[in-house]
């Protein structure tokens, strides 16, 4: 029996969490679409390369990443995820800890079928 879209996305979300914790560039390249659009909690826009560069350089270090309240809304060609994340880490040497809600849109790559994040945004939970 083939895995449901919800099951695939749940597995992809866990792969993304592990890749972020380890700054695993090959895994992040697999999971983030080359044309990714990301807007962070401060309204700044980033590309996939911006994100990968932050991991490569060590500017972004994530020491803890706990996910909760995962909600997956599947559609024929994509899936939208809302998830709360408690992050412990640093950015450019400055502690960057907090609780955030992420909205991610996942879509399968046409050639490989690999589910990738094509768009994401975050807000701080207060």
What does this 3D model show about the protein?
The structure is a single chain. This protein is of the alpha+beta class. It has a single domain, classed as Nuclear Transport Factor 2, Chain: A (Roll), CATH 3.10.450. It contains 3 helices and 7 strands, in the order ααββαβββββ. Strands 1, 2, 3, 4, 5, 6 and 7 form a 7-stranded mixed sheet that branches. α1 (5-22) packs antiparallel against α2 (25-31). It is globular and about 40 Å long. The mean pLDDT is 96. InterPro entries: DUF4440 (IPR027843), NTF2-like_dom_sf (IPR032710). This is DUF4440 domain-containing protein.
Number of strands: 7
The count of domains is 1
CATH class annotation: Alpha Beta
Uncertain regions: pLDDT < 50 for 5+ in a row? none
- Radius of gyration over alpha carbons? 14 Å
In angstroms, what separates the terminal alpha carbons? 42 Å
**Count of helices?**
3
CATH architecture, by name, is: Roll
> What is the CATH topology assignment?
Nuclear Transport Factor 2, Chain: A
- Please bin the fraction of helical residues: 25-40%
Can you write the helix and strand succession as a string?
Answer: HHEEHEEEEE
Please state the average pLDDT score.
Answer: 96
Give a quick account of the main beta sheet: strands, pairing sense, barrel closure: 7 strands, mixed
Give the overall form.
globular
Give the amount of beta strand, in percent: over 45%
Which class of secondary structure composition applies to the elements? Answer: alpha+beta
């Amino acid at each position: 029996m083939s895995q449901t879209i919800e099951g695939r996305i749940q597995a992809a979300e866990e792969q993304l969490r592990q890749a972020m914790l380890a700054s695993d560039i090959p895994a992040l390249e697999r999971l983030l679409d080359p044309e990714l659009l990301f807007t962070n909690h401060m309204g700044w826009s980033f590309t996939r390369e911006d994100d990968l560069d932050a991991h490569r350089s060590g500017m972004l270090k994530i020491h803890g990443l706990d996910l909760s309240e995962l909600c997956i809304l599947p559609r024929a060609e994509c899936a939208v995820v809302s998830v709360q994340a408690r992050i412990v880490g640093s950015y450019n040497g400055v502690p960057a800890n907090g609780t955030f809600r992420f909205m991610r849109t996942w879509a399968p790559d046409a050639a490989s079928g690999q589910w990738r994040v094509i768009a994401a945004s975050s807000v701080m939970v207060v």
